[in-house]
From TrEMBL:
Enzyme superclass (EC): ligase
Molecular functions (GO terms): ATP binding; catalytic activity, acting on a protein; magnesium ion binding; phenylalanine-tRNA ligase activity; transferase activity; tRNA binding
Domain of life: Bacteria
Organism the protein comes from: Candidatus Fimiplasma intestinipullorum
EC number(s) stated in the UniProt entry for this protein: 6.1.1.20
Protein name, as recorded: Phenylalanine--tRNA ligase alpha subunit
Catalysed reaction equations from the record: tRNA(Phe) + L-phenylalanine + ATP = L-phenylalanyl-tRNA(Phe) + AMP + diphosphate + H(+)
Heme found in the keyword field: no
SUPFAM superfamilies per record: Class II aaRS and biotin synthetases, tRNA-binding arm
Key words of the record: Aminoacyl-tRNA synthetase, ATP-binding, Cytoplasm, Ligase, Magnesium, Metal-binding, Nucleotide-binding, Protein biosynthesis
Cofactor note: Binds 2 magnesium ions per tetramer.
């Protein structure tokens, strides 16, 4: 019987040592240490032995069991460790693979123009002002010297909510609002970027919704020279240091005198090309000295205060600056268009 036990021990030891996975190991444990295993078989026969032998066989079979238990335990540890290592190995990330390119957005060309201009004007001490897009007729027209029935309303026909409320046709009503708020006390230096609306038929250069940046300065001793110097800085910031500007007489009800501002063509340096229609100059924006009547209606004493105002068309500036020939490109969210304005341009 003792021999039998030793054979079992040898056989178990070999099997345990050869075992490669936890499941087989567990089967071996059940086999050798369970109730129906070969060791139990031997022990069942112990009653046939005499007392002395029985004690001996009992002792040896216990030793064999302990030995097998120990072997299984240490093998288990080894296999568990190996399982962890295998798992780690199978889950390692190969960091040498090139990463997926995640598409990132870029700044919209209109936002870019607005940001650049905000930078310029904030640097000159201007504040950014905002006003409502659904505006009262009173601010959009009346206070700007365009009473009901005035022919200038034709040019700026817009969308009416009701008799007194409309979608603003220009950012100029913000002038009126800011002046009224200042209660006759200067100075005022603001720019107001924002959306504007007109009942224009959409085509390559017109859109029923577009953006303007209004500028307004009201103070004592403000002259047209100040306006010209300011707009010269604007032209150079947007179109290069060599740009010059010129004023042509024009008409806006809320400015007097009013001017149309041309910038020397950045495409041909003023020599004449298709972009400037061979004139060397590009029509860029409207401006003027705030009409004394407007100053008065908005609470300022025109004897004491003067002001200048200008209205920049953001789409127009962006189209000129980036050579875009269709205003609709700004609104159609076509990635092929937008992707051309990468962040690299910001650097
Ligand atoms: N608001 C005018 C327009 O939309 C532009 C402008 C603004 C002209 C300020 C003069 C002064 O046409």
């Amino acid at each position: 019987m003792l021999d039998q036990l030793h054979v079992i021990e040898k056989e178990a030891t070999e099997k345990i040592q050869a075992c490669q996975d936890l499941k087989t190991l567990n089967d071996l444990r059940v086999l050798y240490l369970g109730k129906k295993g070969p060791i139990q078989e031997v022990m069942k026969k112990m009653k046939e032995l005499d007392k002395e032998e029985r004690a001996k066989v009992g002792q040896v079979s216990n030793q064999v069991k302990q030995e097998i238990t120990k072997l299984i335990e240490s093998k288990k540890e080894v296999l568990e460790q190996k399982a962890i290592e295998d798992q780690i190995a199978s889950e390692t990330i190969d960091i040498s693979l090139p990463a997926y390119q995640l598409p990132t957005g870029t700044i919209h060309p209109l936002s870019r123009v607005i940001e650049e201009l905000e930078d310029l004007f904030i640097g000159m001490g201007y504040d950014i002002a905002e006003g409502p897009e659904v505006e009262e007729d009173y601010y959009n027209f009346e206070l700007l010297n365009v009473p009901k029935g005035h022919p200038a309303r034709d040019m700026q026909d817009t969308f009416y909510i009701d008799e007194n409320n409309l979608l603003r046709s220009q950012t100029s009503p913000v002038q009126a609002r800011v002046m009224l708020k200042a209660k006759g006390e200067g100075p005022i230096k603001i720019i107001c970027p924002g959306k504007t609306y007109r009942r224009d038929d959409d085509d390559a250069t017109h859109s029923h919704q577009f953006m303007q940046i209004e500028g307004l300065v009201v103070d004592r001793h403000i002259t047209m020279g100040d306006l010209k110097g300011t707009l010269e800085l604007f032209a150079r910031k947007m179109f290069g240091q060599k740009r010059q500007i010129r004023f042509r007489p024009s008409y806006f009800p809320f400015t007097e005198p009013s001017v149309e501002v041309d910038i020397s063509c950045h495409n041909c340096d003023g020599k004449g090309c298709a972009m400037c229609k061979h004139t060397g100059w590009i029509e860029a924006l409207g401006a003027g000295m705030v009409n004394p009547h407007v100053l008065e209606m908005c609470g300022f004493d025109p004897q004491e205060y003067q002001g200048f105002a200008f209205g920049i068309g953001v789409e127009r500036v962006a189209m000129l600056k980036y050579g875009i020939d269709n205003i609709r490109s700004f609104y159609t969210d076509d990635l092929r268009f937008l992707e051309q304005f990468t962040r690299k341009d910001d650097e």
